[in-house]
Amino acid sequence: MKGVLCLIIIFMMKYCQFIILVPCKFDSRCVCLNDTSKPFINVSCVGKDIINIPKFPPTVYSIDLSNNKIGSIPNRSFEYQINLRILDLTSNCIQVLETDSFKGLQNLHKLVLENSCINFHKLPVDVFKPLISLKHLNCKYIWFHGINLPGLLVSTLIHLEYLEVDVSQSTPYGILFDKHFTKLLNLTKLKTGVCSGIEFDEKTFINMKYLTAIDLSSCVSQKYNQSLYGRNKLNSLALGTFILPQTKSFLSLISDVKTFSSLESLFLIGSFEPNVEFNGLIFRFFNNLQIHTKIKELRLNNNYIREILPPEKILVPPRTLQILDLSYNKLTCLCIDIYNLLILNLQHNFLGNCLPYYYCTRFKNLRLEQFDLSFNVIHKLSDIMFAGHKNLQILNISNNFLSDIDFDVSYTPKLKILDLSNNNITMISNKQSLNTLTKMMGQSTFAIDLSNNVLSCNCRTLGFLQWIVNDWDHFRNNGNYKCKLDNKTIITMHNFRTIVRQFAKDCNSYSTIVICVTLGIVVFLFTLCAGLMYRYRWKFRYMYYMTKSRYYRYKPNDDNESYTYNAFISYSDEEKDFVVKECIPILEDADEMKLCIHHRDFLPGEEISVNITNAIHESKKTICIITRSFLDSYYCMFEFNMARMESIYSRNEQNILFLVFYEQIQPRNLPLVMLELVQNQSYIEYPHDEQGNVVFWGKVREAIV
Ligand SMILES: *[C@@H]1O[C@H](CO)[C@@H](O)[C@H](O)[C@H]1NC(C)=O
Ligand SMILES: *[C@@H]1O[C@H](CO)[C@@H](O)[C@H](O)[C@H]1NC(C)=O
Ligand SMILES: *[C@@H]1O[C@H](CO)[C@@H](O)[C@H](O)[C@H]1NC(C)=O
Ligand SMILES: *[C@@H]1O[C@H](CO)[C@@H](O)[C@H](O)[C@H]1NC(C)=O
Ligand SMILES: *[C@@H]1O[C@H](CO)[C@@H](O)[C@H](O)[C@H]1NC(C)=O
Ligand SMILES: *[C@@H]1O[C@H](CO)[C@@H](O)[C@H](O)[C@H]1NC(C)=O
Ligand SMILES: *[C@@H]1O[C@H](CO)[C@@H](O)[C@H](O)[C@H]1NC(C)=O
Ligand SMILES: *[C@@H]1O[C@H](CO)[C@@H](O)[C@H](O)[C@H]1NC(C)=O
Prior knowledge:
The chain is α/β, with parallel strands linked by helices. 27% of the residues lie in helices and 17% in strands. It has a 20-stranded mixed sheet. The protein has a 5-stranded parallel sheet with strand order 29-28-30-31-32. Strands 24-26-27 form a 3-stranded mixed sheet, with no helix packed on it. A hairpin with a 5-residue loop joins β2 (31-35) and β3. The termini are far apart. The protein binds 2-acetamido-2-deoxy-beta-D-glucopyranose (8 copies).
């Protein structure tokens, strides 16, 4: 206890310089609040099982003795408390009060006897007489003896302004406040405590002519029957549950409202039961308030109101109204022109389905500053829901089922709090909303509440999570944000920053892996393609040129024997002499064969590759004069390979290649495919001697006939 006090003292010293909270010197059960700049101290002796009133010094300004066990207040207990202004005896059970119990308290302003089981029957009639300055007497919820406060007890308290008291029906002639109350000219405020089954009528308050604030909200099953008719000074009125039939009381009130020309606040909280039909009544009610009163604050919460007007009609509140509370009703639809309202409370209704269509404000410069739509089963809000709400500061959409911010936030530039807690938001994916919110975070006063939404935490939402971390101070209640991992585990993000940083790391390596694997696959496929291309390069080229040449000049080739040439001679330019001086004279001139010789038979102007493929295609055989320069020549090898392809793809794998080794070449210098042909015996060596040459030419002739 002392530790706590020390802490409090340190706290006080630090922040309030002059105010010191210490155990009182005169009684250690009490705490003294001593403001060094003022001559008086405030004393608090709450909940200390005190039985007798302690002795207090005369400098005491206020005493709080609530929650103790004081059973009696003997004569002169407060004799020296001439400076005492406030005395709180709440929750004691004071059985004995004597004539001089309060003697000396001539400056007391406020006496609280709430819940103190005082029996008015047993009080000495002059017990309150010394309290000549008393302004506020609270004697509600005293141990109830079924009697009303006798006017005689308080009739000397001429300064009394505020009376809090229990009322009971069991008085003769229905007069709750007897004629002695007429002396209390300054009594303007009345509030009830225990109050049940009271029929308030025009006699009830007849001895309290100057009331301006009446709070009967604690009265269950009350009847209102012209009780306050003509009270043009009445400023605020609160009523409790009406007795059945409730519309009778309501109709009487609606009619009396016409005479309440000073009325500014009206509370009908929990006044109606489920079966009350408001249609029409509300219309007259609002109309009378509009025409005859100065109504500023209207609270109609907890009233089972299902429909305030049919949805196609616009609810037009009185022009003077600033605060409208329709919370805790059953509204499914509301079409309201909020006009001059500053505060609109619609929480705990069922507006979710209707709101996007029937909110019906005129989109101009609305004055509304606080708007509560929490607990309304809202799944979605329309984009323009808050259009015109230029002055909105607190927007509460908590405890709904929103899954994103789809409404346009940019209409509300002065927003200070956007409460979206307890919704179904996994992330804000709406780009426009994100941008607007980011802009609004530029103002230090703006804050958004996303607590108790189960955010989705994975690498896809990392950007969103980092967005939160970046503007961390703009997120209210950010200690209890929740997060659902990919494996469906829900964690509370007590340590949001650390967790998000960890995520960033994990996701980074994750995306690295993804990139590497993708890259690997791409490279593999590419290599595969390249490999295949290389492997079948000749086939592709062959196909290509074949298609091309067919396209250019198509020659039917149905008869196997009808080739244009007997042979196409493929040779490198170094062997030109051999071809011109030996091949042509021997094969063409003597044997009447037809040879295709590139420097003679190729079509000028045609692409050389096309010429080659055509020549191969139109010749029965292709003879390659193999020399070292042949192997080195690009076009020779091209011809060789094309001929190979021709034999595979156009001649049913019948061999059309005929190799003539004009020089000695080591097998290891030959390309693999050529070696293969050599092994298949499709070759002949040029002998370079006369006898041999005869045999040679004979074999050639044989091959190409
Ligand atoms: C308030 O405290 C100051 C110093 O702590 C002391 O001198 C003064 O007497 C106290 N005032 C009262 C009214 O007790
Ligand atoms: C005592 O309480 C009254 C009213 O509650 C307050 O005005 C006054 O400043 C307080 N005095 C001290 C010393 O705190
Ligand atoms: C209290 O004072 C009143 C009037 O001064 C007196 O009649 C009464 O007997 C006193 N009560 C006690 C218990 O002394
Ligand atoms: C009643 O209140 C008014 C203003 O509040 C004040 O001037 C007048 O003195 C008070 N009368 C009494 C008897 O306290
Ligand atoms: C209301 O009071 C008037 C006159 O005091 C009385 O005639 C009428 O019956 C009362 N109405 C109800 C519903 O009690
Ligand atoms: C929004 O409404 C909820 C529920 O009615 C309440 O708990 C919360 O404090 C409100 N938020 C703000 C910022 O007033
Ligand atoms: C919350 O959102 C999820 C999908 O994001 C959806 O499946 C679920 O039904 C929603 N819950 C409610 C109550 O709307
Ligand atoms: C889900 O993942 C988190 C962290 O990666 C781990 O701590 C948790 O045990 C996992 N939960 C399940 C049900 O696998």
